[in-house]
Amino acid sequence: MAENDNTVKRYRKQIEDSKKFAVSNFAKELLDVRDSLGLALQHTDLDKIKESEDIDHVKSQLENIVKG
After folding, report:
1. Are the beta carbons of 49 and 58 closer than 8 angstroms?
2. For residues 54 and 62, what is the distance between their CA atoms, to the nearest angstrom?
3. Domain membership of residue 44 as a residue range
4. What is the pLDDT of residues 35-62, one digit of tens each?
5. CB-facing half-sphere around the CA of 12: CA atoms within 13 A
6. pLDDT band at 31 (very low <50, low <70, confident <90, very high)
7. CA 5 to mean position of chain CA atoms
């Protein structure tokens, strides 16, 4: 009986650890995306894009952001 209880406790702990790992891994991936978007925005002159009447230039800038 005690051995069965220990097995159940061990599996519950493994499940909890797996959940924590999955959440922390997901959060790390989100931070990587945020960092990449932040860098893309730092290297983009939004004022120039807003003022530009050349649609090809605006498309080019947006394509660069998406590619980055």
Report:
1. yes
2. 13
3. 2-67
4. 988 888 888 787 887 888 888 888 888 8
5. 6
6. very high
7. 39
